[in-house]
Design a protein that fits this description.
60% of the residues lie in helices and 11% in strands. By secondary structure, it is an alpha+beta fold. The chain folds into three domains: 311 residues, Butyryl-CoA Dehydrogenase, subunit A, domain 3 (Up-down Bundle); 107 residues, Butyryl-CoA Dehydrogenase, subunit A, domain 2, CATH 2.40.110.10; 123 residues, Four Helix Bundle (Hemerythrin (Met), subunit A) (Up-down Bundle), CATH 1.20.120.470. Strands 3, 4, 5, 6, 7, 8 and 9 form a seven-stranded mixed beta sheet that branches. A two-stranded antiparallel ribbon has the order 1-2. α5 runs antiparallel to α6.
C-alpha cells in the first residue's frame, strides 16, 4: 500500500492542532453562522478541525497513491507545444483530473462559489504534500491564488462568472507579470492596455515571458493602462481568457519543474476586463498576488525538502559500506540530522506565518466591508498587516534556501548514484533550485522584509514568546535566545540610526537572517512546551543557529565601512 503523505508526517497534524487557528477560523466562518446556509459548513471550531483533518487525510492519500508514482514519468515527458496548443504530460492530466474530482480546486474560495472556504494555513499544508509528491504539479495546483485575487478585488459580475469555474476545475489560471525587460522590476512593464472609448472594451498588446502555466484558460495580466506613464502608478490589472489572439510562442526548456509549462506569450489585441481600479495593478493587486505566491512557494520548497530528506534517509538505511549501513557513519547521519532539524524549523516558521496571513486577510476584509468595525478591529488589521508583510518574505527566504541545502545534501548522501537519473535525488535537486529564484529571489525577500525588521514590528510577539514558562533545559536554551534577541535589537537600532543607504542594504540579509533565527528558536521552544518530545529538535537548532545569528549581528555592529571598499576591490580584480 502506498504512503499517505498526511498520516506518515505527524508534524503536519501537530501544527494543525497547535497553531491556534480558532480566531481565524471563526472569522472565516462568520462565527460559524454559515452552517445555517451550507450543510457542509462547520458548526464549531472543533467541527472545523475535524473537517480539516479529513480533507488533509484525503489529500495525503491522493499524493501518496496517485501523484507521487506518476512524478518520474511527468518529469521525463513534460508538456508539449504543437500548432500553438500546449498539452500537459499524461500524468499531469490525470493528476489534475484527480484533484478536480476531489473538489480541491477552490480550497480558499467562498462556499457561495462552490469553494471549500478553508484558511490559507490548510491550503498551504496541501501544497506541501502535493509538492512532496510532484513539485511541478504544485505550480498548477498552487495557482489558486489567481482565483483568490479575483475573489478579493473583482466586481460581483466577474466573481460570478469566473469563480465557480475555478472551483470546479473547468478553468485554470496564470498570472502574466514578467516581461523580457521587466523581471523583478515590475514597474518597467510595457505591455499595453488600450481602451476603446466607443465600446468600453479593453485590449491587451505586447509580450510576457517566463509565465508559469502560460497556457491557462484565464490570465491575470499586469499592463500599462495610462498612456505616457513610466512607473508603477500607470499599471492596472486585467483578466482575460485564452483565445486565438493570445499566442503561446514557446515553452522554456528548463533545468527542473518539468511538468509545469513556462511560456512566452504574445498578446495581439486580446479582449480583457479591468479588475478593480485603474492604476492600482502593481501597488495593490500584484502585491497581494505576490504575498500569496511567497507562501505557496514556501510550501513547495518545504515539500521538496521533505521528499529529498526522506529519500536520503531511506537510501542511507539500505546502503551498506564497510560492513554496516551508511546511516551509522557520523559524517552521514549528521547531514541527515541537520536536514531533519531544518525542515522542522521551516515548518514551524511557515505555519506560524500562514496563521498571521489568515488573520491579516480576514481583518482587512472586515475593515473594507465597514460593518461593526471598532478601533480594536482596525488596530488588529494594521498589526497583522505589518507582521504578515515581514514574515512572508522571511519565510520564503528561509524555506527555499533550506530546500536547496537539503536537496544538495540528499545527493551527497547518495554519492555517485545521486547524480544518476535512476534515482529521485537528482530530480529533487533540479526542482528545488528555482524556489529561491522565482516569485522574488532570496535577495529581494530581504529587501521586502528589512523595513519591518528595522521598525521592530515583531517585538511584541518576540516578547510574548520569550516570557513563556520555560523550565530546565528549555529555560537554559531560552536564555541563549534572549541574549541573541537583545543583540539583534542593538544591531537593528544601530543600522536605523546610521544614515547610510549602502550600509543599510549590505546588512539587510544579515539582519533578516538573524531575526528569522531568533523568531524560529522561540517558536520551537514554544512547540517543545506543547510536546516535550520536540526538545531535541529545538536544542539542536538553538545550538547550531543562534551563534550564527549573533555573528551576523556582531558584523553589523562593527560598522566597518571598509567592507564595502573590500567588496568593490575584489570584484575589480
Amino acid at each position: 500500500m502506498a504512503e499517505n503523505y498526511y498520516r506518515d508526517n505527524p508534524d503536519l497534524k501537530f501544527h494543525l492542532i497547535h497553531r491556534d487557528l480558532s480566531e481565524a477560523v471563526s472569522l472565516r466562518e462568520h462565527g460559524f453562522s454559515q452552517a445555517q446556509e451550507f450543510p457542509e459548513a462547520p458548526e464549531s471550531f472543533e467541527d472545523a478541525l475535524d473537517s480539516y483533518d479529513k480533507v488533509l487525510d484525503m489529500v495525503g492519500e491522493i499524493c501518496g497513491d496517485l501523484i507521487a508514482p506518476r512524478a518520474e514519468s511527468v518529469d521525463l515527458e513534460g508538456p508539449k507545444l504543437e500548432n500553438g496548443v500546449v498539452t500537459y504530460a499524461s500524468g499531469t492530466q490525470e493528476n489534475l483530473k484527480n484533484m478536480a474530482q476531489a473538489q480541491l480546486m477552490g480550497v480558499m474560495l467562498p462556499r457561495r462559489f462552490n469553494g471549500l472556504n478553508m484558511p490559507v494555513t490548510l491550503y498551504t499544508m496541501m501544497t506541501e504534500m502535493v509538492s512532496r509528491a510532484d513539485a511541478s504539479l504544485q505550480n498548477l495546483f498552487g495557482l489558486q491564488d489567481i482565483a483568490e485575487t479575483i475573489s478579493k478585488f473583482a466586481n460581483e459580475d466577474q466573481k460570478a462568472r469566473y469563480l465557480p469555474r475555478f472551483a470546479s476545475g473547468e478553468v485554470d489560471g496564470a498570472m502574466a507579470l514578467t516581461e523580457p525587460e521587466a523581471g523583478s522590476d515590475l514597474q518597467a512593464v510595457q505591455l499595453k492596455a488600450r481602451l476603446d472609448p466607443a465600446t468600453g472594451q479593453w485590449y491587451l498588446n505586447g509580450m510576457k515571458r517566463f509565465i508559469t502555466n502560460g497556457c491557462a484558460k484565464v490570465h491575470l495580466v499586469l499592463a500599462r493602462s495610462e498612456e505616457g506613464s513610466k512607473d508603477g502608478r500607470g499599471l492596472s490589472m486585467f483578466v482575460c481568457e485564452r483565445g486565438p489572439r493570445l499566442i503561446v510562442r514557446r515553452i522554456e526548456n528548463k533545468l527542473g519543474i518539468h511538468g509545469s509549462p513556462t511560456c512566452e506569450l504574445q498578446f495581439n489585441d486580446v479582449p480583457a476586463e479591468l479588475v478593480g481600479q485603474r492604476r492600482r495593478g502593481l501597488t495593490r493587486y500584484v502585491m497581494s498576488l505576490m504575498n500569496g505566491a511567497r507562501v505557496a512557494i514556501s510550501g513547495q520548497a518545504l515539500g521538496l525538502a521533505e521528499a529529498a530528506y526522506r529519500e536520503a534517509l531511506a537510501y542511507a538505511r539500505a546502503r551498506e559500506q564497510f560492513g554496516k549501513t551508511i546511516d551509522k557513519f557520523p559524517a552521514v547521519y549528521e547531514m541527515l540530522v541537520n536536514s531533519k532539524v531544518q525542515i522542522a524549523a521551516a515548518r514551524t516558521m511557515l505555519y506560524e506565518t500562514t496563521k498571521y496571513v489568515d488573520l491579516r486577510d480576514l481583518y482587512e476584509e472586515w475593515v473594507e466591508k465597514g460593518e461593526g468595525v471598532t478601533d480594536e478591529v482596525r488596530q488588529k488589521s494594521k498589526f497583522y498587516n505589518k507582521v504578515a508583510a515581514e514574515l512572508t518574505p522571511l519565510v520564503k527566504a528561509m524555506t527555499t534556501e533550506i530546500a536547496n541545502k537539503v536537496a544538495y545534501d540528499g545527493i551527497q548522501v547518495h554519492g555517485g548514484t545521486g547524480f544518476m537519473r535512476d534515482f529521485k535525488a537528482e530530480r529533487f535537486y533540479r526542482d528545488a533550485r528555482i524556489t529561491n529564484i522565482y516569485e522574488g529571489t532570496t535577495q529581494l525577500q530581504y529587501v521586502a522584509a528589512i523595513g519591518g525588521v528595522l521598525l521592530r514590528v515583531m517585538d511584541p510577539i518576540l516578547n510574548d514568546l520569550s516570557h513563556l514558562k520555560y523550565e530546565g533545559k528549555l529555560r537554559r536554551l531560552a536564555s541563549s535566545v534572549d541574549m541573541a534577541c537583545a543583540k539583534l535589537h542593538l544591531a537593528a537600532d544601530y543600522v536605523t540610526r546610521r544614515d547610510d543607504t549602502e550600509y543599510h542594504d549590505l546588512m539587510a540579509g544579515r539582519l533578516c537572517d538573524a531575526e528569522t533565527i531568533v523568531y524560529v528558536s522561540y517558536l520551537m521552544l514554544r512547540d517543545a512546551l506543547q510536546d516535550r518530545t520536540r526538545e531535541s529538535l529545538v536544542e539542536r537548532y538553538v545550538m547550531d543557529w543562534i551563534p550564527r545569528a549573533e555573528q551576523a549581528c556582531d558584523i553589523v555592529l562593527r560598522g566597518d565601512m571598509s567592507m564595502i571598499d573590500q567588496h568593490q576591490a575584489i570584484l575589480a580584480m
